[in-house]
Amino acid sequence: MGIDFDAVIVGAGFSGLYMLYQARDVLGVSARVYEAGDGVGGTWYWNRYPGARCDSESFYYSYSFSEELQQEWVWSTKYPEQPEILSYLDHVADRFDLRRDIQLSTRVTKAVFRDEDDCWEIHTDDGAMVTARFFISAVGALSAANIPSIPGLDSFEGDWHHTAAWPHDGVDFTGKRVGLIGTGSTGIQATPVIARQAEHLYVFQRTPNYSIPARNYPITPDQMAEIKANYAEIRRKCRESYAGFPYDITDKSAMDVSPEERLATYERLWGEEGGFKFIYGSYYDLLFNKDSNDTAAEFIRGKIREIVEDPAVAEKLAPKHYPYGTKRPPVDTDYFETFNRPNVTLVDLRETPIAEIVPSGIRTSDTTYELDVIVFATGFDAVTGALRRIDIRGRDGRTLSEKWEEGPTSYLGLQVARFPNLFTISGPGCPGVLANMPTAIEHHVEWIADCIAYLRANGFTRIEASSDAEDAWVEHVREVAERTLYPLADSWYLGANVPGKKRVFMPYVGGFLPYTQRCQKIADGGYEGFTLSTM
Ligand code: NA7
Of 210, 214, 183, 192, which is closest to residue 302 (Cα–Cα)? Predict the structure, then answer.
């Protein structure tokens, strides 16, 4: 039986585009990408909600693999908006002539491993089936939308949208009463923008968030020239860091400095720098030491109380029940300020939970909010959701979804035992979602490409993570997470946002550099923990 492709890749976002480039143009193997959307871009194709932008700075939230690409592309601002990132990815697809191997508007529905000839049968929603030696998931860790099953949604007479499936021609909120559910990074970006247009915006908050101002600015030609001249150093810093960000890491604990010095640091990071530097460029132990964390958390609560004029609203917006940074820290522009607008109301769902959706709006335990539009900014079935929605069957016929019923397992976040020749870019158990994604993605893609090159050079047709290596890695991921404050929050890192999802801390928090070094050592040692074989 012949095989149609060396590699089939699912998804044409940051991961899938680069995986295709590596497979086809670097390794020289045949590859096909299937993408459900009718354009490339992944996250940046789907998330078109008002205010959607990157929380990482443009000059490092981008590919590093091509010097020409990074030298020719010009970013307009520190934090680009969704359309700009989408046009960057469109440019990448054109520049590297990737489109001819991408089949758009096609969803992979099923994939079955064929034991007899070490290949995958991949089924798509157009009724076709192709075979491939390697099946590579580039489906994205934050792509399976989480729409809560609130009773009565079907009865709602207005419009409703999830932020990750936003209409391409936009939504006009003018004169509308809007209810927005969710105050994660997405809700926090969307709130100020919707509030400026809507007649009235009701923000339904289940958990308040420690959001840091972005301090966005346009990048001048001189600044861009300086960034371009320094790309080598910026990229080196990203690769050698704890989380893929090019920030200078301090070895100081927040408890090692005087209260005055700490306050000055936090004021500078809040007032001038903004964004992720607050967590990744302040004190090394904010995520390890509760006392240190308390100093940052209290500082942020103080800022919320300063900004929000109504003290009762400020108290509701000030997070108190989990440490700062243990849920993904949002980055905002005028989020807390928006609650001073007369057309914005905060609804605290801890006090008055949603009872149901009714034809005219949302009914909480104490009143009904009359609405024309409901916006679900309720996040994702993160990391595992998109893969579990595909019927993937490994060598014993068991599905990946069944295997992960009791929590996700993987070896290095790259492979799953009993699923040979399946690679999972940004799978569970890797630093990806905690890191600067493009840096983490480039690492995974290059590791997979090197692995395929090794298998081909040595005549192997199959690679599979051993169950022992997988068990040991899952245990290591758990044990490293236990040493941090992360498990103290009900976050999507833990699957806590999806009812019924097994609570397992999914990202690897042992540090990006130690992780990549370990992956390299495993590869250099002939893929320790994997079984390599020939048909
Ligand atoms: P998040 O960060 O998961 O935020 C989702 C928000 O929706 C969060 O405030 C949730 O509250 C809330 N939520 C979820 N389900 C419900 C229900 N049933 N009722 C009320 N509120 C609910 O998703 P985002 O899209 O904001 O961000 C995802 C990632 O994208 C982000 O971390 C970045 O990496 C980019 P909760 O906190 O669970 O109580």
Answer: 210
Quick one: tokens of 138?
Answer: 């580039």
Distance 412 CA to ligand 1 centre (A): 26
Closest Cα to atom 14 of ligand 1: 378
> Rounded to the nearest 10 degrees, what angle do helices 512-524 and 231-239 cross at?
80
Return d(Cα 451, Cα 91) in angstroms, integer: 28
Give the mean model confidence (pLDDT) for residues 359-375. 98
Tokens 């969803």 found at: 107
**Ligand 1 contact, 379 CB (< 6 A):** yes
Express each pLDDT in 438-455 by its tens digit: 999 999 999 999 999 999
Q: Is 459 exposed, middle or buried (0-12, 13-18, 19+ CB in 10 A)?
A: exposed
Please give the backbone phi and psi of residue 266, each rounded to the nearest 5 degrees, phi first: -65, -40
pLDDT exceeds 70 at position 490 = yes
Residue 1: pLDDT above 90? Answer: no
pLDDT digits (tens, 9 = 90+) for 242-278: 889 998 878 899 999 999 999 999 999 999 999 999 9
Please give the distance, rounded to the nearest whole angstrom, from the Cα atom of residue 16 to the centre of ligand 1: 25
Cα of 181 vs centre of ligand 1, distance in Å, is: 9
Query: Where along the chain do its domains lie?
Result: 5-144+381-460
Is 52 touching ligand 1 by the criterion CB < 6 Å?
no
Rg of the chain over all Cα atoms, to the nearest angstrom: 23
Residue type, 87: S
CATH classification code of 5-144+381-460:
3.50.50.60
For 51-67, write each residue's pLDDT tens digit: 999 999 999 999 999 99
Give the Cα separation of 494 and 433 in Å (integer).
Answer: 12
Is 349 touching ligand 1 by the criterion CB < 6 Å? yes
- Distance from C-alpha of 439 to C-alpha of 397, rounded to nearest angstrom: 34
- How far is ligand 1, taken at its centre, from the CA of residue 278, in Å? 21
* Pocket of ligand 1 contains residue 501 by CB under 6 Å: no
What tokens does 494 get?
């833990």
Q: Using the mean position of ligand 1's atoms as its centre, give its distance from the Cα of residue 191 in Å.
A: 13
**Beta strand pairing status for 530-533 and 462-465?**
antiparallel
Taking the alpha carbons at both ends of the chain, their separation in whole angstroms is 13
* Size of the chain, expressed as the number of residues it contains: 535
